[in-house]
Amino acid sequence: MFLARFVGKEPFHATSNVLTFNYVKWLRMFIMPIGIWPGEEFGEKMSLFVRCHRYYYIIQGVILLAAQYYFIEKYFDTMTFFLKGYNYLVFLLTFLTWARICTTTQNSYGTVVKTFINTLHLAHRKLNNGYERLVFNIVEMVSFVFCASIVIISSTAFCLFSAAPMVVNYRNGFFTEGVIPNATYNCIVCFTIPKIIDTHDFSVVGTLYTVWLGFACTTAVCGMDILVALMALQLIANILVLRNRLDTLTATKLTDDKETSEETYVDAQTTSVVAFNKEENKIIHDKLVDCIEHHKMISMFTDMMSSFFGPVLGINYGFHLIACCLLLLECGGGTDALFRFGPMTLIIFGQLVLLSVVFEIVATVSEKLPNSVYATPWYRMDAKNRRTVFIMLMRSQRTISITALGMTNVGVTTMAQILKATASYYALLTSINNN
Questions:
Q1: DSSP structure class, residue 183
Q2: CA 355, 358, 360, 363 torsion: positive or negative?
Q3: How far apart are CA 257 and CA 373, in angstroms?
Q4: What is the pTM of this model?
Q5: Model confidence band, residue 252 (pLDDT cutoffs 50, 70, 90)
Q6: For the chain, what is the mean pLDDT?
Q7: How many CB atoms lie within 10 A of CB 335?
Q8: Phi, psi torsion values for 266, nearest 5 degrees
Q9: Rounded to an integer, what is the distance from CA 129 to the centroid of its chain?
Q10: What's the distance, CA 318 to chain centroid?
């Protein structure tokens, strides 16, 4: 099958190992080098370098942030307007990378990822009909396309972003003539540690180190966004399957026993309806309990995501609020600047839009869940099943959504506010530059 070739396993099997799906392999390969893949949770053997890097980067990040601040302060008067914006942007990316790697050192990070892989994923549920298999197909294909495209685009953006200053340095003769007096060496990440290193000075080791920092930033920022998006897509799939099971609760005849009639209050009047018999009510009760447990699992995982990824998404929104206008400003610096910053701008804006849209879809599909619960033939059920339906109706009233720092919902409304603020800040900075 076309799907199986890309996903990595034949779908619809309740015991499928999600780790064998190709998009999960892509994600693992992408974030493994900087140590933010929780392989220990799945019994994988992690190298010492990978296990230590996530803790090493916490210390390195603090030192690097201080060194970048010192560099900006030292050369502030000699930097151009665009160079100042570039260094501010790199400082923000360093902080964002440091914050994300810090979150991966928490034990709850491994718990969330393990729950996503081993419990939430739709591959672990028995799919009852063609609609549920279609939902699985579509979500798996979207997951693969999303993961592969972000990995490829972000890797391309990193290469272009890293290559631009190296081309300038080559043209200036640094790689052929060595240290050139009174010449400024261009680096990906600019920082200064007094009496140790200054990236304005040519150094092969320093150059390789900044390239590694750029790679770590790319994988930490884009890799965690991929992971969060994949979780959101599975939430959408689970909610759609749950709604379908409620809609088809009595789609087929349950038993062949003779049905009974009773008077029931429906649509503001007393009408005579065919009630379910005892055996049918027992079958329906089992289905309702399964739906309640499914909804409970979805709600539990949503709370886990909000609790753990809420601060990450909050910092992410703050980063986009400042970085988006800086990127637009840098792209206006000419053809070379557009070549260097264009792909990064596409990635940053794309992540903001994609994550916001995906989480908006989660909230939208969950808002229709109470309608599916109420649409069940509860008026034909016995008192026990009616109470069960009432319990689920009460539970489903709360919209399933992810919040950033517990204050604002992640969705298109917040995204629109950020884009509006970005346009205003960009206009302001452009006028300042022109003056």
A1: -
A2: negative
A3: 26
A4: 0.86
A5: low
A6: 83
A7: 8
A8: -135, 135
A9: 29
A10: 16
